[in-house]
């Protein structure tokens, strides 16, 4: 009997069914979050009524944020366990459970396994190597490449979840000619799961951001259900560039026709992308998401101090929330914030404030550069009228230009800058926010700035009471790397429809979700 057969036999002998019976009796749906980041997936599942038993994250700040928010009601000892940064490539599932203060047996205490290995993990993965794990659960230990995705599959082998959810970038569907999602689905199929994968756009699920990601959902055969993804709740017509990116990502995706033509592809694991009906409510806009937050103008008066930005100043709300979305962010159950926010802080970019003010909504870097050149020419004209215009090519001339015009090439960096559009969702927030925030310039000309940490959190659907550990740059990185909690909530709610939780569990779910 192979390890794969043995794994299936465990399910057939009743281990997965025992988990399902426990859910039915107690309403407990236990989630372990791998590559947890600051907790976007966990927050969505928690809000849907699941119990988050733990998360594994190697970044110190993100791990601390995760513990302080997802395990906010735990004892100091338990919170300390969860705040410890762990590199999953060095974590043995059995040792993790043994060290865990509230888990007892690695194969029995996890019902749902979620997470998204970083895309760098796929560089050297192929179908054959993934199958090595199916044939030999210890294979990755002997591989010097020690691939993170193989480690994820090791957790599948050891924790034996009833449900698996994996998130990643769309390019994972066409990664150096490999459709990694399909290859993982094939392995999960061999391990006794029914897997499906697709692309979901966050703007279709109440998030004010056109963030598109791949999700793979798998149910163990004992769950006796086919994975389905949540139907969109909001409508938005995506810009043309999104369709172009989709087309590239989908080039390696199998269809019923390609499975007929290729005997090695016996099944189709891809689910059609859920598309919204145009009679749904419009997607949440940037202004609906952040327009109720306090204005920031200190930087325009030269009052913004240099150095690390800490979150030790309360920015009071200027009034009541102005949209349903803002109200939700202020009153998320367990993360209510009645007075204001603590992390409404921005970068100090004095050269660029005049450019930000002149940019039109939707402008990118080439337009910003032209606005900067206009400002430079106007300054030269002013100096000429004063008889002080420097000679072109002189050191004084170049210094003046550098003080007004950014040095970036308009050809190489066309998307480096972008001014948000108040009446549309924003573009995808990336971890690069920790370096600069030019990809999300505030739409308000009078504020003339890039977005704040709290605005970034709002655009990712983190509630105002969710607190980020560290200073501004680590917080921006955590936000950019996260799964939007509202999207996670939609997925968790859809999954709970097939899990046999008790009446008490269903009641608890409805109470939390509707709060």
Fold and architecture overview:
This protein has 515 residues and is α/β, with parallel strands linked by helices. It has a domain at 3-281 and 484-514: Vaccinia Virus protein VP39 (Rossmann fold). 37% of the residues lie in helices and 8% in strands. It has helices at residues 3-12, 15-26, 40-47, 60-70, 76-83, 93-99, 127-135, 148-159, 180-190, 240-249, 256-261, 286-290, 324-330, 353-358, 365-385, 395-402, 453-459, 472-481, 485-496, 503-514; strands spanning 30-34, 51-56, 112-115, 163-168, 193-201, 212-220, 315-316, 340-341. The strands form two sheets. The chain has a six-stranded mixed β-sheet with strand order 2-1-3-4-6-5, with helices on both faces. Helix 3 crosses helix 19 (485-496) and helix 7 (127-135) runs parallel beside helix 9 (180-190). The radius of gyration is 25 Å and the shape is globular. 43% of the residues are buried. The model is unreliable at 1-10, 121-130, 139-146 and 506-515 (pLDDT under 50).
Helix and strand arrangement:
Elements: H1 3-12, H2 15-26, E1 30-34, H3 40-47, E2 51-56, H4 60-70, H5 76-83, H6 93-99, E3 112-115, H7 127-135, H8 148-159, E4 163-168, H9 180-190, E5 193-201, E6 212-220, H10 240-249, H11 256-261, H12 286-290, E7 315-316, H13 324-330, E8 340-341, H14 353-358, H15 365-385, H16 395-402, H17 453-459, H18 472-481, H19 485-496, H20 503-514
Helix pairs in contact: 3-19, 4-5, 7-9
